[in-house]
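Re: the multi-chain job from yesterday

Posting the exact lines I submitted so nobody has to dig through the queue logs.
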Amino acid sequence: DGGITQSPKYLFRKEGQNVTLSCEQNLNHDAMYWYRQDPGQGLRLIYYSQIVNDFQKGDIAEGYSVSREKKESFPLTVTSAQKNPTAFYLCASSRTGGGDTQYFGPGTRLTVL
Amino acid sequence: GQQLNQSPQSMFIQEGEDVSMNCTSSSIFNTWLWYKQDPGEGPVLLIALYKAGELTSNGRLTAQFGITRKDSFLNISASIPSDVGIYFCAGHRSNFGNEKLTFGTGTRLTIIP
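And the result, structure tokens for all chains:
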């Protein structure tokens, strides 16, 4: 069954700690994306990767880091430098990075206490 | 980053009513996508449009790619309780290169008992 998985569904961390969110896809897609969603708002792009070992900053990259060592995996680290990390984080993938439809994972809700 | 203008922001309707929402931009788009997001879940693709003037249906949902390429419309006929959620439009300005997907601000649909 092809798709995008994100784990965990809910994550709690203390302020000042780094935390890594997992995103895996078995769709053989080249491109992967991370978005942040705040209550009642749309999606804001954090980072994206069009190919393995390459990634670019999105609109709100400060305080976040990513890696793309494998085609199927695109983990996101929320660092202690992110001033307001509590949010719903969505991972997506598309066949290529140029104009292809993006498919989303189920999301991870991060709460920083 | 740019976001598409989506209206209305919220809708309160009775079961069985038809629903219309739209998405507009000051720029020309080559692809329009419509997603639905249930609470606490990732957006799910409903309809993809690739050609100006295109009209595409998916069950009770019908979406149109505006002739000017600066807007798109989504209609839901005979609404049912499972239609509740947030509907997002998204668009690509270019089908090539590293052009990112631009999202609308969302339309929240609520069905009044």
